[in-house]
Write a structure and sequence with these properties.
Layout (H helix, E strand, L loop, with lengths): L3 E6 L4 E7 L1 E6 L2 E5 L6 E13 L6 E13 L2 E6 L2 E3 L5 H16 L7 H19 L12
Parallel strand pairs: 1-7
Antiparallel strand pairs: 1-2, 3-4, 3-5, 5-6, 6-7, 6-8
Helix pairs in contact: 1-2
The chain binds adenosine-5'-triphosphate.
The site of adenosine-5'-triphosphate has 13 residues, from helix 1 and helix 2.
Length: 144
């Protein structure tokens, strides 16, 4: 079966690097599916979960907090502001970040940057979604 190289990097570290059979990324206009031998592409990602398909293995999920995705020569490179594999996510920390962001949005004073609070909430949502995949993989009937 055809594969392609997937690399997920941040300014700080290499998060993922492997041969995969498909990727579904959080594009600005919804889910963006990429299969091997895809045409060249450069696009922006929003905070969300990135799903990695590998032949004969369960799908893997990675939380990305927005960034760029480039496809070139059967290689997909994601340059993310931050990214974590499901097993790396500290769920309590994400819940706390979510709580802080919601609090800032609801009780917003003149000093609160709404766009920043929303972005922080979306990062936390993405991390919680991916962290919960550890308990409810879609194959076990979890979904969504
Ligand atoms: P927080 O307010 O909890 O720091 P944040 O959304 O502001 O969350 P980021 O600025 O996106 O955090 O990320 C800073 C660093 O912390 C990155 O290296 C990121 O991978 C890591 N990180 C953030 N939240 C978590 C988490 N819940 N679990 C594991 N790593 C995290």
């Amino acid at each position: 079966m055809a594969t392609m190289k997937l690399e997920i990097v941040t300014a700080e570290r290499h998060v993922y690097s492997d041969e995969v059979s498909g990727v579904v990324a959080p594009g600005m206009e919804g889910e963006l599916g990429i299969l091997p031998n895809h045409a060249p592409l450069l696009t922006i990602l929003q905070p969300g979960e990135l799903r990695v398909m590998k032949q004969g293995e369960q799908d893997a999920y990675i939380a990305v907090s927005g960034g760029f995705l480039e496809v070139m020569a059967n290689r997909v490179v994601v340059l993310a502001a931050a990214a974590e594999r499901a097993e790396e996510i500290d769920e309590a920390r994400a819940q706390e970040a979510m709580r802080r962001a919601e609090e800032r949005i609801v009780h917003r004073g003149a000093d609160v940057d709404l766009a920043q609070a929303l972005a922080s909430m979306h990062r936390a949502q993405a991390r919680l979604k991916v962290a919960r995949r550890r308990r409810h993989p879609p194959q076990a009937g979890g979904g969504g």
